[in-house]
Amino acid sequence: MYPPTTQHTRGTVAAVVGGELGTKELTTAELNKLLARAGLEHVREIITDDLADMFGRGSGLLCERLGAHIFSWALSCPIELLKNTWTTLALPVFVHGSHFLPLKHPSSKWHGTDRKRLVLCVAAHFSLFFGPRCLTPTSLRHA
Asked: Which residues lie across from 25 on neighbouring strands?
């Protein structure tokens, strides 16, 4: 069962996005803690199917909870991800709130798998809704 999540207001998102982004690092210790809770040893064990599954399940649940067929990912994005550019030593990429989109979203086309891995890990670090259950490999969730 997924824990509750909240939606930001459009005003909150506009204020955060309109400001200057900070710079943060998901430390190796923080990343390893997330991965260990999910039974993973390395961030690259999160495969495309896992990413698609997380965004698909998250999308379905958010639509159900909001009673809508569509919603804004920006309104669901953890605020720390929206207001900062994130890096980690484990991956040669950076992410911020605009990368918090499903794989098939038109604006997601050139993000790449490593960015999706990192954006999921940052979201999981700050939100129980996108936490360790989302990081568990698809094959283990359906076993």
From this structure: 87
